[in-house]
Write a structure and sequence with these properties.
Elements lengths: L4 E10 L2 E10 L8 E10 L1 H8 L15 E9 L9 E5 L14 E4 L4 E3 L6 H23 L9 E3 L5 H12 L4 E5 L5 H7 L3 E4 H4 L11 E6 L3 H9 L1 E9 L13 H5 L3 E4 L7 H14 L2 H7 E5 L3 H9 L6 E5 L3
Parallel strand pairs: 8-9, 8-11, 9-10, 11-12, 12-13, 14-15
Antiparallel strand pairs: 1-2, 3-4, 3-6, 3-15, 4-5, 5-7
Amino acid sequence: MSRNRFKALLIEREDGIVRARLRKLVDADLPAGEVLVAVRYSSLNYKDGMAITGKGRIVASYPHVPGVDFSGCVLASENAEFKPGDEVVLTGWGVGERHWGGLAQRARVQAEWLVPLPRGLDLRKAMTIGSAGLTAMLCVMALEEAGVLPDSGTVVVTGAAGGVGSMAVALLAQLGYRVAAVTGRNSSHAFLRQLGAAEFLGREEMSRPPRKLESRRWAGCVDVVGGVMLARILAEMNYGGTVAATGLAGDDSLSTSMMPFILRNVCLRGVESVTPPRALRERAWRRLAELLPEQAYQAIGQEIPLAEVAAAAERIMRGEIRGRVLVDLEK
């Protein structure tokens, strides 16, 4: 990589149309920040797909470099906490949305957004985990804190073939939970079974509007869908069950009854992974480094070069991608 020129995926709005192109930039093009990082890996998340394809109001201003997470090595730092050569990970903080992100060979960001690379991980594994894995771990921790334990009963994961969902399936199974996976693709069953799913439910079945209370089925849930599916799961929760809700892939609205909360003592817990305190982020990263087995990295992650990101963004918006997409910035 040249000292002054580097590759970036730049999205621009022209005549109301968003286009993504590979560009050569220089350090002076980067926004202000305390730490300059040589990005080794980034990933493709649903938010990136929205930004690159121009769907939704993800990007604050143009031109813009997407990429909500990255791992890499510090090149220069104005903050004493980081020094050249340090390996770091970034997720959240509006990077790839309000601030230029990780789909470029260099990024300049604020020091408080970075986390030192957790012990036991390399840069590739860290970004195979990425924002999706961190979010999934925070959801699992929320269930644990609510008293949902492996012997409590089955935990259901919605959007199970996606990034957050597949990570949640792998983490829960590794911890000894019985996991039910909701997916709209039968072709994903073998993939999810490899991660540890024991039961499969169809998207159509779980999207039927529920009665105020349904038969009890679930001790816990990691939900990334929202809307009618979340309402059904709430109606099907066991007494004292908890739902960790973290996504809006289906709908950002929720029409439900108070019955599950009052008659079954159900808890709906929101999980936010963009700006959690550093202590919580570091604790979650340590758990991820300890828990994920080697086979999960191979099963969950697929790798592409930067030149293929725009095409992959179209596929993720069509629901054609399962697991995590790793972007190698050196290819």
